[in-house]
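> forwarded from #structure-qc
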């Protein structure tokens, strides 16, 4: 027996759609795993892009971290000895490229303060009459107070303290009161947005390099527009900002080092990555794909 109402099926479909739509909002996440599942679903429906999903997951991760999890360990700290002259410690500052340095008194466990490299600028104009005597330079007069936090302190409230008190570095103390490391506001932000590079970073190589034939080494954060232009590809620049975003959109998880995925005419292999982001990719181009009007060798 046929249905005399031609709109009955479409009405049923609409009802089902709105029912499912409303159910999605009624089922509130009960824990962080549920929330991550909601984010994954939102990414799959292209409501958010892969980079946005990673940043939200980074915020969730930071809320569970303690300072000891992300601090720079004692062995990697760059410090200035208060007993050194300007001529002695200036090369250390220039070589490291950092902007802040713990000032210690012979022993790293005895921190007198923090030296900001910018506070030395005035002493570089000794030839100009600024009323500053280079010979009477005193480190004690320009260092700032050092902030010390315990290893067990949660990262989230520390970020709030960094922002509200307008300081960028804190020394980290272990349970015995010794200095075990240092943490900066940049270290925390990198857990959310990934590695932050600036003009002082050593790795300032080209984004795309030819390895051999149709194989290339590509920085994962290469702008998608630049990637498309170089490889004559047509990845959707509205769905991601970088080539790593395209890979994340296809895999729906953070790939590990060595993991591979083929997307269109390109095979991507992750050659460098950490738990938060991909860093370097090996890209193999299909030999029939044309790059700048030439078929890939």
């Amino acid at each position: 027996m046929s249905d005399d109402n031609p709109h009955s099926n479409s009405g049923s479909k609409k009802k089902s759609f709105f029912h499912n739509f409303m159910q999605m909002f009624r089922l509130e996440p009960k824990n962080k795993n549920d929330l991550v599942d909601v984010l994954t679903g939102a990414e799959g429906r292209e409501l958010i892009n892969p980079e946005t999903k990673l940043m939200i997951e980074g915020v969730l991760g930071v809320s569970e971290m303690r300072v000891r999890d992300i601090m720079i360990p004692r062995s990697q700290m760059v410090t200035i000895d208060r007993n050194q002259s300007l001529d002695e410690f200036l090369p250390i500052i220039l070589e490291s490229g950092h902007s802040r340095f713990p000032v210690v008194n012979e022993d790293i466990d005895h921190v007198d303060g923090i030296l900001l490299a910018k506070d030395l600028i005035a002493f570089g104009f000794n030839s100009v009459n600024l009323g500053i005597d280079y010979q009477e330079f005193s480190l004690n007069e320009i260092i700032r107070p050092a902030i010390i936090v315990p290893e067990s302190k949660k990262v989230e409230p520390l970020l709030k303290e960094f922002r509200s008190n307008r300081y960028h570095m804190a020394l980290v103390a272990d349970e015995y009161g010794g200095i075990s490391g240092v943490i900066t506001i940049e270290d925390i932000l990198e857990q959310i947005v990934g590695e932050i590079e600036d003009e002082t970073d050593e790795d300032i190589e080209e984004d795309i390099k030819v390895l051999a034939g149709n194989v290339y080494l590509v920085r994962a954060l290469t702008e998608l527009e630049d990637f498309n232009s170089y490889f004559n590809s047509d990845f959707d620049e509205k769905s991601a900002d970088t080539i790593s975003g395209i890979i994340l959109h296809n895999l729906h998880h953070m790939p590990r080092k060595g993991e591979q995925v083929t997307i269109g005419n390109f095979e991507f292999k992750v050659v460098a990555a950490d738990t938060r982001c991909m860093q370097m990719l090996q890209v193999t181009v299909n030999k029939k794909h044309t790059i700048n009007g030439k078929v890939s060798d």
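QC bot note: Residues 8-48 form one domain. The two ends are 64 Å apart (CA to CA).
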